[in-house]
User: Fold this.
Amino acid sequence: MKKILGILALLIVVCILTACLSSSFLSAYNIENVLRRSALFGILSIGVAFVIITGGIDLSLGSVVCLVGCALPWLLTVQHWPLSLAIPTVAALSIGIGLAHGLLVTKLRIQPFIVTLCGLLLYRGIARGFTRDQTVGFGNEFKPLRTLATGKIPFLPGFDIPAPLIFLVVVAIVAAIFLNRTIYGRYLLALGRNPQAATYSGIRTERMTILAYVISSGLAGLGGALFVLDVNSAQPVDFGNFYELYAIAAAVLGGCSLRGGEGAIVGVLIGAALMQVLRNTITLVTEKNNVEFAIIGAVILVGVIADELTRRIAYRRRTAQALRQTITSEA
Assistant:
């Protein structure tokens, strides 16, 4: 809870500073754009948070976004598949990727870093292959479908709620209930804290690991579809490039420990919002985007350092408390 309150306070401070430095920040147009981007990246961040909670990592998110984002318009406009077949196909593709990752990690005992790093290269390569490195998009077709990402819901005079925010709210509620209110969510947290203890207690850790990767890739596929519906085109060379960094940074900022066993969906949402506000701040205040990745790297580093220091302090407190109890009982 302290981590969540801390990141929320930081988000508020960044918003206030940006509003003071740029009058455009509080415009309805800019706020709607920030909410839209936060929603899209928030979906990816929730997915990768489940993997991080188990003590794993998923570096392939950006390439899964690319693969699904290129495959959907390619199937619809180039191969002329019906919508009723194209959408289930890309959904099965993204879920199948997560299943493959989970099986490689659990059955062959390959490190998650290696598995998903290979996926990062493989899926983008596949997308570049079937599209022949050509930009794919919907053109002027499938406008009703595109409203899932570009649509707006009237909320206040002059301000609308972007449609992707509705998807994020639904995903976040389901994810929070699953993580905090079901036995399987507790299994995932227990797996991240101590895999051996989880195994000895009867938890089917391999199934839980596979489930985490399926959730991650499944939400990456949903995010990829929404991203391409939003921008209406995808260039396989760079579509979804480095999106995994934004997602991982948001999860770490939101309280997910890279060691596993810790994480909260609310914190991940705040972390995703902070990343997009920082990105918006760079654009509005400095009018330069060349320092964006430096800031992302610094954010991840600070999050890891804070996590390590917090763990050390907590360990020292537990050790001191146990020592005092031992002395008291002996006395």
